[in-house]
């Protein structure tokens, strides 16, 4: 009986030792695989900037760990504190781009001048420490106040600080990573442009833009281009600011038939008619998904591609042509010294 009890005790001890050994190996393996989100390379451009001028604030985000960063109830967040910069908003949405931006939902608190990025998906593990997963995060901004080179060096110029706050998604590095980038200004612009958008909708060119401030402003000129370099003036729009001065945001909308505008680019009435016909047939084909309609669109495309030329150069007529738009600000003295950014017209 005593011998049986001894054997049983040895067997149980063996199971305990095996469990402890397995748990130790698991903990070692777990310690070797961690998620490690980080940020670096913050910068504000241009350097120097202009008060009321547009620019960018950017940095790089990456998960450098060999374990994915899970989406947890307490997600990883990124806090960006801006100084003498305002982000450009369109209907409340931040104008942000870059591969690293897609892993977060971004919001802005105008009271604290703080942008918050909240993790919205699982961030994969890095292939190696030198190949982190993520990429650049780029915000469109406006320079709101002047500063000097000395202020930029001291971290009180135009720019901001970026800080990663670890969540509960498996982050193995409890330290907050941060990076800062500041610049300075060297002059003023009379008008500060916010967002600018342009689209083709219902046969019309629609342009919308916003000003965040205006001083001694007379009007705006809408210019368009087919290559993004040589622009043609389309129309003028008067300022809505009282006597050309305002410290509040003002939104502007311009709309005009595309065929009227296209004539200013040299398209003939026949070319414009074919473009419109092909656009309609393409929309019908896409909506109904019928082979007959698709073949009709293809036949029209081939016909136009052969016969529709401008200065011996074939036109892209299976859709609205590529067009770029920018807004020029005209001072009361008649000079145009300030332009919005150039935007590509999208088709709605």
Structure report:
The protein is globular. The protein has 348 residues and is an alpha+beta fold. Helix content is 23%, strand content 42%. The chain starts with a helix and ends with a strand. The protein has helices at 2-32, 149-154, 258-262, 269-288, 291-307, and strands spanning 37-45, 49-51, 54-63, 77-83, 85-87, 89-90, 93-94, 96-97, 104-109, 114-119, 133-143, 158-165, 178-183, 185-188, 191-201, 204-214, 217-225, 232-238, 250-257, 309-310, 313-314, 324-331, 336-339, 343-344, 346-347. The model is unreliable at 19-31 and 297-318 (pLDDT under 50). Strands 1, 3, 5, 8 and 11 form a five-stranded antiparallel β-sheet that branches. Helix 4 packs antiparallel against helix 5. It folds into four domains: 1-32; 37-188, Sandwich (Immunoglobulin-like), CATH 2.60.40.740; 191-262 and 321-347, Immunoglobulin-like (Sandwich); 268-314, no CATH class.
């Amino acid at each position: 009986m005593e011998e049986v009890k001894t054997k049983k005790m040895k067997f149980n001890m063996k199971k305990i030792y095996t469990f402890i050994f397995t748990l130790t190996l698991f903990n070692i393996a777990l310690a070797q695989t961690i998620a490690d989100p980080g940020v670096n390379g913050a910068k504000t451009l241009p350097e120097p900037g202009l008060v009321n001028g547009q620019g960018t604030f950017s940095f790089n985000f990456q998960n450098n760990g060999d374990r994915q960063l899970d989406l947890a109830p307490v997600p990883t967040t990124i806090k960006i504190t801006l100084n003498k910069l305002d982000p450009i908003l369109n209907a409340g949405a931040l104008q942000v781009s870059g591969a690293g931006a897609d892993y977060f939902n971004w919001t802005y608190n105008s009271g604290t001048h703080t942008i918050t990025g909240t993790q919205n998906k699982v961030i994969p593990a890095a292939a190696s420490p030198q190949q982190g997963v993520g990429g650049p995060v780029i915000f469109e901004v406006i320079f709101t106040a002047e500063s000097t080179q000395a202020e930029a060096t001291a971290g009180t110029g135009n720019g901001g600080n970026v800080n990663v706050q670890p969540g509960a998604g498996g982050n193995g590095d409890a330290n907050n990573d941060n990076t800062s980038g500041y610049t300075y200004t060297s002059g003023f612009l009379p008008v500060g442009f916010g967002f600018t958008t342009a689209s083709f909708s219902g046969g019309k060119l629609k342009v919308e833009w916003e000003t965040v401030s205006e001083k001694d402003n007379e009007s705006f000129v809408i210019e368009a281009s087919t290559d993004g370099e040589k622009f043609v003036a389309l129309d003028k729009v008067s300022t809505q600011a009282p006597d050309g001065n305002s410290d509040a945001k003002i939104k502007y909308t311009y709309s005009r038939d595309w065929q009227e505008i296209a004539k200013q680019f040299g398209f003939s009435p026949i070319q414009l008619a074919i473009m419109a016909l092909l656009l309609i047939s393409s929309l019908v084909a896409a909506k109904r998904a019928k082979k007959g309609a698709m073949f009709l669109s293809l036949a029209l495309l081939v016909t136009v591609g052969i016969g529709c030329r401008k200065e011996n150069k074939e036109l892209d007529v299976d859709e609205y042509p590529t067009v770029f738009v920018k807004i020029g600000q005209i001072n009361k003295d008649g000079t145009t010294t300030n332009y919005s950014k150039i935007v590509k017209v999208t088709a709605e």
